[in-house]
Specification:
The protein is an alpha/beta fold and 487 residues long. The protein has helices at 12-19, 24-37, 49-60, 100-108, 120-123, 161-168, 189-195, 200-208, 222-236, 253-260, 303-306, 317-325, 343-346, 383-388, 393-407, 440-444, 468-484, and strands at residues 41-45, 64-68, 95-96, 113-115, 127-130, 133-135, 244-247, 272-277, 282-286, 291-294, 296-299, 310-312, 327-328, 331-338, 352-354, 360-364, 375-381, 415-422, 434-435, 455-457. 32% of the residues lie in helices and 18% in strands. The chain starts with 11 loop residues before the first helix and ends with a helix. Bound molecules: flavin-adenine dinucleotide (FAD).
Length: 487
Amino acid sequence: MPEQTPPTGIDRRTVVKALGALPLAAAAGRAGAQAAVAPKKVLVIGAGLAGLNAALLLQEQGLDVTVIEGRDRVGGRVLSHRNLPGAPESGGTSIFAGYARMIDAAKKYNVGLIDVSPTVPLFNQRELYLNGAIIPEAAWPTHPRNPFPEPLKKTMPWAYLNPVIGKNNPLKTVDAWLDPANARYDVSLHDWLVSLGISEDIIDLCWNNNPAYGTTAHDVSAMMAMFSTTFQMMQMQFSRTVFGYTAAGGNQAIPEALAKALKKEIQFKRNVVAMETTDRGATVTCEDGTVYKADFVICSIPFSVLRRVRIDPLVRGPQGLAINTLGAQQINLLHLAVKQPFWEDDGLKPAMFGDNLAGMVVAERKGKTAADVSSLTIWVRGRNALWMDTLEEKDAITAIMTDFYRARPAARGKVEVRAYKSWGRDPFSAGDWAVWAPGQINAFASSVGKAHGRIHFCGEHTAVSNRGMEGAMESGERVAFEVLGLV
Ligand SMILES: Cc1cc2nc3c(=O)[nH]c(=O)nc-3n(C[C@H](O)[C@H](O)[C@H](O)COP(=O)(O)OP(=O)(O)OC[C@H]3O[C@@H](n4cnc5c(N)ncnc54)[C@H](O)[C@@H]3O)c2cc1C
């Protein structure tokens, strides 16, 4: 149902001028006082972590907040599969010990957190599968496919590159990736690794098979890998004993709890197709014809989707380029329930790393003890995920399972496909986390979060000092204070 914009009553420029020198906390207090007289209307697009965090902060300050969401659920890229034991994740997975905002939110809204530290040592226990055969760990140091230099021949492929990146990482702080002094590292990860003496065979084996960013090391900025590494190192320093958490009932319980705390019910299935900003307010139009008017719009739509939304006036310059070109990681996940522990039959570890479609098999450990395997998740990333997305879902699942059974014949009849998620084919994400291609950080990283008239952008892709779920929360906080500074 359309909402009408109330007369503003307050001259925006006067307020901005008056607030200009105030610290943000003071701005927040002031907004609350004004809101008692004439609450400003804020429309938040997206009920993921960024949008929900912004909405609650503004609601606390007395603003009139409406959240609309394209999907029929909250959480966005946080998605827990409760039809499987342990509710494994298809989205945001690890809540690291230093995720202050996420941990605070869980505490404030009574979501239990489970310490996952006991399962961490088990995570890297995997089988290596290359060229159609399992290579036992004992055979790896002398195996012909082993591309590592002599002192490191025993290192398994999944453990090789992170220490190399860590040791050579020039970024000392989490926001240093935006410092122009580091601009020279905004080259391809491939070129940077080669400059360190890393061979093509190592890059292919350790990165290109199953990349965390990009489709290969060629199309991701080295600075992105550096930022991610610095972020993880910082997170490790928060606690000597706790690695991280998962939410009881699945991480989706956190956005669900945030959503419950909203005064106004979220309006679902509102697929935003157009936005307009003027001096007097902003208008948002949805696919079903619903039109919303507000004093400010907070938009958490990932850029991979936002580029399909008409924005009037056009976003120009570096930010426009960012909306049109910033990449999103391609990831598809297949979740398997375990009917019988087939690894007891073939004597191998349940998890795998390999060069096939089922290239990363994760043994979820969400049972009664850390050692219990509650389900298996097959991660398909990069080029393989792009190929999966050209197939019908059932054919994609068949292709992955054929490869999986080829590697683990003992699993036949002992696992059951319970969920498949392609983030690339999801119209509300069109991919997963933002991926910065070489040159993009220098070109527009400092512009992505800038306001466009009365449209204010947030979301993981606009975070400065955090990544993933905590980055989404950080961006929600930043955008809320930005709006509070204007009312
Ligand atoms: C497989 C996977 C693993 C991950 N692992 C981790 C991890 O271990 N740790 C970590 O910290 N993070 C992880 N992440 C990343 C983390 O989940 C995301 O960065 C974070 O949830 C993003 O939150 P957001 O609010 O910025 O965006 P989103 O959650 O995407 O929220 C945006 C919202 O906008 C809605 N929307 C989009 N378009 C429209 C439209 N046109 N109209 C209306 N609504 C729209 C969407 O439906 C969505 O609800 C992972 C993600 C994935 C997919």
